[in-house]
Design a protein that fits this description.
XK-rel, XK-related protein, transmembrane, 363 residues, membrane, 2 strands, mainly alpha
């Protein structure tokens, strides 16, 4: 693909192409109006776009199935040896940049797939927000897994296994609940078994991405493009709340079971720094979706409104649980107080009788 892409690029424009195709894209609405733009795409440009899309997907696969395990392993070795060599630090920085770049490409791909009808132009501020968001999120996640695995080596495999199985099975559960037919139009040359293998590999990659960060491209097996075209704020909110709680729990376990090996580390300060770092990633994510997203004008609701509605829903659930507990206490206490209620009713009746007798005497 690389050789063909360079060959097409350097030979473009020298020979007149036999045919061109016309694509129609709509602009992002400005002041409520959206114009449709027609563009001629030659055969060479179309092939270059295909190669670029393939390179973007390959960078995502390489980042989360290659660089992410490599970064985790190198950091684990540094923790055990209590030193960071120059060569290993260079490798870790390159691995982290590779993962961040793969996550950034995943964000841009999901935007272009979801808003395929529009001419999407990503500004430099959006790239900066995505870079900071993914850097804080991935770096803190890897550090938490390494610290937890350094003191509880067996249990870290259980954490990784539960994460992988949960995210691998989640798209299949949604597909089973939707009762949609089995996707047959992925590739004409693939049989049903080949299609199943491709879908399993896709969900495996999806689980690998969600192991370290939020996957911007949500897998939906019932969709022809295999990627959800809707922006689900609630699933994103639930993911980050659960992930923050998981990171806090893993850090708590590391703090409780840490050995004398970590005497040279200020454990409370390290836990606080990692939690603040993850919250900084969430902050830059909110800034991106609120101010820097190229298609924010097409959102039916902003991320702040979704967070407020989610918190209101949680508040209503808590209030409902409190009301049920209070009614249960009243029901439990009411049989014990029946005798007191009867006694009080008798005293009230006697007082009313005495009042009536005194009134009659005065009359």
């Amino acid at each position: 693909r690389c050789v063909e892409a360079f060959y097409i690029y350097f030979h473009a424009g020298r020979v007149e192409e036999p045919y061109v195709s016309i694509t129609k894209k709509r602009q992002i609405p400005k002041d409520g109006y959206s114009e449709e733009i027609e563009k001629e795409v030659g055969q060479a440009e179309g092939k270059l776009c295909t190669h670029r899309s393939a390179f973007s997907r390959a960078s995502v696969i390489q980042a989360f199935l290659g660089s992410a395990p490599q970064l985790t392993l190198q950091l684990y070795i540094c923790v055990l040896q209590q030193e960071v060599t120059v060569a290993r630090s260079i490798f870790m920085v390159l691995s982290l940049l590779s993962i961040v770049y793969g996550a950034l490409r995943c964000n841009i791909l999901s935007i272009r797939i979801k808003y395929d009808d529009y001419d999407v132009r990503v500004k430099p501020a959006a790239y900066l927000c995505i870079f900071l968001w993914r850097s804080f999120e991935i770096a803190t996640r890897v550090a938490v897994l390494v610290l937890f695995g350094s003191v509880l080596r067996i249990w870290v495999f259980l954490v990784v296994l539960l994460n992988f199985l949960g995210f691998c099975l989640y798209p299949w559960v949604l597909f089973w609940r939707s009762k949609s037919p089995f996707p047959e139009n992925i590739e004409k040359e693939l049989s049903r078994v080949g299609t199943t293998i491709v879908l399993c590999l896709l969900t495996f990659l999806y689980a690998g991405i969600n192991m370290f960060c939020w996957s911007a491209a949500q897998v939906e097996l019932s969709d022809p493009d295999l990627i959800s075209s809707s922006q689900n704020w609630y699933s994103m909110t639930v993911y980050y709340i659960v992930r923050l709680m998981e990171n806090a729990f893993l850090l708590l376990m590391w703090y409780l079971y840490r050995t004398d090996f970590y005497l040279y580390v200020c454990a409370p300060m390290l836990v606080l720094q990692l939690l603040i770092g993850y919250c900084m990633g969430i902050f830059f994510m909110m800034v991106f979706y609120q101010f820097c997203h190229p298609c924010k004008k097409l959102f039916s609701s902003s991320i702040t409104e979704a967070l407020l509605s989610c918190f209101k829903l949680l508040y209503l659930i808590c209030q409902q649980n409190k009301s049920t507990l209070l009614t249960g206490k009243v029901v439990v206490k009411s049989p014990e107080n029946t005798d007191e209620a009867r006694g009080s009713s008798k005293t009230i009746d006697s007082q009313n009788r005495s009042i009536h007798q005194s009134v009659s005497c005065n009359a």
